[in-house]
Amino acid sequence: MPACRKEYENKCQPYCKDILIFRTMEIFQQQLILPARPRGFHLITKEIEERLSPITDWRSGICHIFIKHTSASLTINENADPTVRMDFETYFNKAVPENDPDYRHDYEGADDMPAHIKASMMGVSVTIPIENGRLALGTWQGIYLCEHRNHGGSRRLMITAWGI
């Protein structure tokens, strides 16, 4: 054994002995198909959590949720007061109105191009820490499906979690 390695191990021993316990990283992935919902902001936290039973014995990890669409999005925000959802919808409808004469992409309906813009503004994914087998959301945080189309149809999410 090289002298530098032995010296490192001797110095490290009192500090690192608790760190030398290794667990194998686990990965979980599942697609979730959400039923069609009307335009608006919909809490989907429980639907996500119901799919995460394989992570209940994990101490720590990350959960990434990705929506496979261009006219809907995901976000995390307050889950208690339903007026938050209404205010989101009102704000985004004012910020990105339908029937704007500058839109060129309008052959799928007046709500389509605004839906693409809103989805780009909100984002297609959320990432949440996992702590002691559960999503480590704050007390008032919930996961939202942001449906930006009047008739968007079912929505596919890919849930990927990795942890120990």
List key phrases describing it.
single chain; 164 residues; alpha+beta; Jelly Rolls; five-stranded antiparallel β-sheet; 4 helices; 27% helix; Secondary thiamine-phosphate synthase enzyme; YjbQ-like_sf; UPF0047_YjbQ-like
The CATH homologous superfamily is termed YjbQ-like
Largest beta sheet: strand ordering: 1-8-3-5-6
Shape: elongated
Radius of gyration: 22 Å
What is the CATH top level name?
Mainly Beta
Question: What is the second-level CATH architecture?
Answer: Sandwich
Q: What would the average pLDDT be, to the nearest integer?
A: 91
Give the uncertain stretches in residue-range form.
none
The description of the largest β-sheet is: 5 strands, antiparallel
Could you characterize what this model shows?
This protein is α+β, with helices and mostly antiparallel strands. It has a single domain, classed as Jelly Rolls (Sandwich), CATH 2.60.120.460. Helices cover 27% and strands 36% of the residues. The chain contains four helices and eight strands; from the N terminus they run αββαββααββββ. The strands form two sheets. A five-stranded antiparallel beta sheet has the order 1-8-3-5-6, with no helix packed on it. Strands 2-7-4 form a three-stranded antiparallel beta sheet. β5 and β6 form a beta hairpin. The longest helix has 14 residues. The radius of gyration is 22 Å and the shape is elongated. The two termini are 32 Å apart. 21% of the residues are buried. The model has no long low-confidence stretch (mean pLDDT 91). Belongs to the UPF0047 family. It comes from Parapedobacter luteus. InterPro entries: UPF0047_YjbQ-like, YjbQ-like_sf. It holds the Pfam family YjbQ. This is Secondary thiamine-phosphate synthase enzyme.
